[in-house]
UniProtKB/TrEMBL annotation:
Residue ranges crossing the lipid bilayer per the database entry: none
Entry-linked Gene3D superfamilies: alpha/beta hydrolase, Galactose-binding domain-like
InterPro entries: AB_hydrolase_fold (IPR029058), CocE/Ser_esterase (IPR005674), Galactose-bd-like_sf (IPR008979), TAT_signal (IPR006311), Xaa-Pro-like_dom (IPR000383), Xaa-Pro_dipept_C (IPR013736)
Example GO molecular function: hydrolase activity
UniProt name for this protein: CocE/NonD family hydrolase
Alphabetized Pfam families for the sequence: Peptidase_S15, PepX_C
Native organism: Streptomyces salinarius
């Protein structure tokens, strides 16, 4: 492995500032040396010795080519080939496509003194010894970003055309074997899922860390706007408007300033986020989970179940629709990469070997090399911090639908519960502030608010007193043995009234402490309605109780508008996939550090009420 250079900033450090959210061939024609030292910029192949932003062991060139939708959009690519590659020698290509590869910086200017290829995935390049292992690495700017022209089109048909063009272009280069793999995290993981959906012969494998599985779910939850409904548009408009480096070539500089002469691009981008109807064509054309039906590209994904940014919504649908080989690391972490470490040196995902396993995956599907290590198809960390291996995800021994009955609540955003707390002498909990500023898929502000102490318990107390409060609870009987809730829980109910509904699942211990482990919100729809919660993998210990809260949106991060009306709920049911942890096959992995942070933030006091249903009917998982 090449030694890491202290002067090279890691990708994680480079994106510490705010930032989630084109056509002719040929290399760039301008070169310029910055005042800080040698900085060849791409008139011909540029090495690390000529420009210290070029990764060691590689040579850098720039290229331009058209998108596939005949819109006139010209895409820009930074190509890194193994140094010393012979004239007619060919290598497979690892391709990353996204908005974060601008020469000036990923989400804003990063203080570089001269131009050069993005260091976004320097961790992957170094950790995998990518060039020594015989791969090219290609970074393509989506339309509207970096050196690409055109109007940005967040996950839409335009970007899908860009992905198609980039795969085809990478496969047809004289130094390419024609085998292409995709790599990314967050936004450039989304483009990997798009690549899989396109079903192109040249695409042999996709590695997607912490993606979105459906673009709508990042902006709205079943009609309820999330706090980033305006911030995400602003973030990507800002990234698209980032000025180029002074020594970028003329074609790159002109493309980087495309929005200055096409201000409608930014206006149109912002307008799309204001469409709240999930059935609108704007969103159906971005429903990646549905569009994955029948796809078969080998797929390696990661997903944090307790992610606070790109959450596991419609993940199960996407994986169900995918028919090809799958690999996955799933667990209890936040928005991190497979090789990331926290401040004390522990791996953020808790599992060793990310780069080795990723390269083995690419070797198998891009080079036809049989793996020397037998990796599990899925390595999964549950809520206890224990890792297991399984052939797919989710694996459940049974699916159950349990009756929750009904009740009523006032859609007041928790105002009545807060008032009752104040009247009882408890400190008045403040309503969660709405986050401001820009918000993209790579970085999100801390919008998830700690649950106010006593709020849930006060709602349950008022329910026991026969009052109609901001929410009501339904409790299970204590479990007889450890039972895992996996997959995507779903609540169905019949509602009468207008407003919002929030659904929460709690793991309640015998001492009355409870962890909220899953939630979702929706606009109330008259008649029968069903709401999918987030995908989860949570083990309820023997003696614990499952509590379900149904009511107004009181916590979390949504821009809801309480109706003030009383909403009546009848015939509520909860569908769960259950598994028995006793059957687990252990695989190496440590407790991910974020799990304890989550437990501190989402543990409340909520003594169990009378049990009205059994999680496991008949008592057997």
């Amino acid at each position: 492995m090449r030694p890491r250079r202290a002067a090279v900033r890691t990708a994680s450090a480079l994106v510490a500032a705010l930032a989630l959210t084109a056509g002719l061939g040929g290399t760039a024609v301008a070169a310029h040396e910055a005042e800080a030292g040698p900085a060849a910029t791409g008139a011909g192949p540029v090495t690390h010795e000529q420009n210290d932003r070029v990764p060691e062991g590689s040579v850098w060139t720039q290229h331009y080519f058209p998108s596939s939708d005949r819109s006139g959009t010209r895409l820009h690519a930074d190509v890194l080939l193994p140094e010393g590659l012979k004239r007619k020698e060919k290598v497979p290509v690892i391709l990353s496509i996204g908005p974060y590869f601008a020469h000036a910086g990923q989400t804003g200017p990063e203080g570089w003194t001269h131009t050069g290829p993005s260091a976004r995935f320097q961790d992957f390049i170094e950790g995998s010894d990518l060039f020594d292992r015989g791969y090219a690495f290609v970074m393509v700017d989506l339309r509207g970003f970096g050196g690409s022209t055109g109007c940005l089109d967040w996950g839409g048909p335009g970007e899908q055309a860009d992905v198609k063009a980039a795969i085809d272009w990478a496969a047809k280069q004289p130094w390419s074997t024609g085998a292409v793999g995709m790599y990314g995290k967050s936004y450039d993981a989304v483009t990997g899922l798009i690549g899989n959906n396109l079903d192109q012969r040249a695409l042999k494998a996709v590695v997607a860390q912490e993606p979105l599985w459906d673009m709508y779910q990042y902006i709205y939850s079943n009609g309820v706007p999330r706090p980033n409904v305006t911030g995400t548009a602003g973030a990507y408009n800002s990234i698209a408007s980032m000025p180029p480096m002074a020594d970028d070539d003329p074609r790159y500089r002109a493309a980087a300033r495309y929005e200055e002469s096409h201000p409608e691009c930014l206006t149109e981008n912002s307008a799309g986020y204001r469409i709240s109807d999930q059935s609108d064509e704007h969103w159906t054309s971005r429903d990646l989970a549905r569009m994955a039906r029948g796809s078969d590209t080998p797929l390696f994904v990661t997903q944090g179940f307790i992610e606070n940014n790109t959450k596991p919504e419609e993940m199960e649908e996407y994986l169900d629709n995918h028919r090809g080989p799958e690999r996955g690391w799933l667990g209890q972490w936040d928005h991190v990469r497979g090789g990331d470490r926290v401040g004390d040196g522990r791996l953020a995902m808790g599992r060793e070997g990310w780069y080795e396993e990723t390269l083995s995956f690419y070797d198998q599907y891009l080079k036809g090399i049989r793996p020397t290590v037998r990796y599990p198809a899925y390595a999964v960390e549950d809520s206890t911090g224990a890792w297991r291996a399984q052939r797919t995800w989710p694996v459940g021994e049974r699916s159950v639908t349990v009756p929750l009955g009904g009740g009523s609540y006032v859609d007041d955003g928790g105002a009545s519960a807060r008032a009752a707390l104040t009247a009882s002498g408890s400190p008045a909990p403040k309503a969660p502030p709405q986050p401001t500023g820009e918000w993209d898929m790579e970085n999100a502000p801390a919008a998830e608010q700690r649950t106010p102490p006593g709020l849930a318990a006060e709602a349950a107390k008022r329910q026991r007193a026969g009052e109609v409060a901001s929410s009501f609870f339904v409790w299970s009987k204590p479990l007889r043995k450890d039972t895992r809730v996996t997959g995507t829980p779903q609540v169905s109910l019949t509602a009468r009234g207008e407003g919002n509904v929030m659904l929460k699942l709690y793991d309640v211990a015998p001492d009355g402490t409870a962890v909220m482990f899953d939630e979702q919100v929706s606009l109330v729809k008259s008649g029968r309605m069903s709401v999918d919660l987030k995908a989860t993998d949570w083990t309820l210990a023997a003696g614990h109780v499952l509590a379900v809260e149904i009511g107004s949106i009181q916590t979390g991060s949504w821009r809801d508008t309480p109706s003030g009306e009383t909403v009546e709920v009848r015939g509520a049911k909860l569908r769960l996939a259950l598994d028995d942890p006793a059957d687990d096959v252990a695989t190496p992995g440590d407790r991910s550090p974020y799990l304890d942070t989550y437990l501190r933030q989402y543990t409340v006091n909520l003594p169990a009420g009378p049990g009205t249903f059994s999680v496991v009917p008949g008592g057997r998982p």
